[in-house]
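User: Structure please.
Assistant: Input sequence and predicted structure:
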Amino acid sequence: FDVMLPIENLYMPPINIIVRDHRQFGRTPTIGVHVIKSVEEVDPHANFETLESFHHFGLPSVSARSNTMFKSATKEKESDLTQQELDWWAKYYESCNDFDKCRKYHTLGYPTFEVLTGDLENSHNYKGFNDFCSTQPLFRGKQKQNMDDSNIVGELKSSFCKYPLPADPDLPLPPRIFQNLPKGDPEECIVRVYVIRAYDLQPCDPNGLADPYLEIELGKQLLSTKDDYIPNTLHPTFGSLFELKALLPIYKDLIIRVKDYDLLTLDDTVGETTIDLENRYLTRFRATCGLPKTYCVSGVNTWRDSQKPTDILIEYCKTNRHQPPVFVSKTEVTIGNKYYKLSDFESNVPESKLWGQENERLALHILNLTPFVKEHVESRALFNALQPGLEQGRVQMWVDIFPKSLGPPGPPFDITAREPVKFVLSCVIWNTYDVILDDVSFTGQKMSDIYVQGWMEGIDDKLKTDVHYRSLNGEGNFNWRFVYPFDYLMAEQKMVVKKKEHLWSLDKTEFKKPPKLILQIWDNDKFFSDDFLGQLELDLNSMPLPVKRSRSCNLNMLPEVGHHVKLSSLFEMKHAKGFWPCHNDSSGVPKLTGKLEMELQLMPAVDFDKRPSGVGRDEPNVAPKLDAPKRPDTSFLWFMSPWKSLKFVIWLNYKAVIIRGLFFILLVLLILIFVYSFPGNFSFWLMNRL
């Protein structure tokens, strides 16, 4: 409408917006009121830059990082990588610069996305996605200063633009600001909500932790993951995808709520965040679906938008009054006086089998030069009405909106939290050599009653061999098998351990630890505590290779002692056999205290179930079959075998003394008998002679 306004903003009247309800009998009660006190607030030139002024076409250059990463990618074959190592989570951790959890993805140099530290609408230059229309609250009654939320009865989405008319009515009118307006009819959309994880949540339980789960609300739709709550954590990893149907603008507020599960009482709300889907749908920054860096038709970066890049580029040029793109060939396009080639974006980059058509890739590269929203993950703050203004944690997520009028969307990303794979480690202890002799027998001999104990770090199930008694030279014979089942995340190279922290805990708490095998050599004592002799720690991801001979086994094999030690992964080798050194650091200096001859075999649990092996020498005694060790005759427990004790302890060490003692006793007996019997026999002989 046309209106006469003063030139000076100081004298500008306010704009009163009144929303009324039409009822029966001509009644029109007031629903809400909003007052714009200054016209300057609705001046488009004072509030935001237009998309045209923000946009700048220019020839790009492929970044040095991209060239470097793709060059390094050629050194490793993609076929050698498992699907678990190239999942969506690898892309996420690569984007977060957490390279320890995405080693293969980082090596191949696949594209990443932006991980925002705040809300999407408040990042970059998006200004809340209010470029098309702004959102104003409607108040009950007269609008006053310092009005609380209880007086807000709704929201008004509107946009006001003022521009002067020419003084001469015959002159042409200035160009209209509102052009290419969207349809006024409700738009049915498919909304995909990806919730990755939450962190720094407010504790809700007496133990200082929480049992969080998600609740998604859109209109009358309510989805929940209550059955899959995550116990005892303030940093849960959800990996949840929710797909809903929305009728914009009737149902526009998407609420993501994090709740705390309670067994006996009502679940508490940790916090929630609200996303205005209508603003994201209407904004000229195209916040419906973020643009990825590459156009792929398969793999983890598969195109998921309902429109192809060429269609989006044509629509962009039409909306912003540019000439439509003209493809000279599949790798060349002109837009007005600008000329683009695909080689300008993909120079010195080896082509991937995951990529799509060349013209679509070129269109996507050009779109990435525009201020359109790129592929991202936003970190939204959670708030609770009971503690207004106080942040209760953050949730990392993103939302895709697909209008049904544009066709069906592509396949969704699989962001399901990584599930560990069950593995079984079989450790056969064959022998020990050069174990220090820690005890002294009552005969004065140096000896040790050797046994080996082992466990996986973080798992309390410790296994022991039997005891090799009275080892006089540090050698122990066992032929004993340890079997350790465990859960393993291959992409993160971590072992997943779930256990209850306390006896009264209802749920198990999950921990991630390196897959480390710990083996210890002990000296057995019956009446006192056992003596620790030495230890060997093997990280299954980076363990030293064994040696084939005992005399070549020393502490320089260990990475913490030696330098430039070659390390290998048992997950790649699957099998290792040989000698490893054990050491004791109690004196502050590592000391070689023994050598372990053992065999390690790693296999998935499904393969182990087909051909299981028993612990120790129990049945099924296969792979390999373990016979009872042939130990020396001197290996026995002295008070359980008294005759062996006499033979191998007393007789073996005091044979000469015993023989001399027996000879002396016999001699004394003979003398005593002679002395005792000589007088009588002599008298008898003498009487017979007389």
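Residues 642-689 form the longest helix (48 residues).
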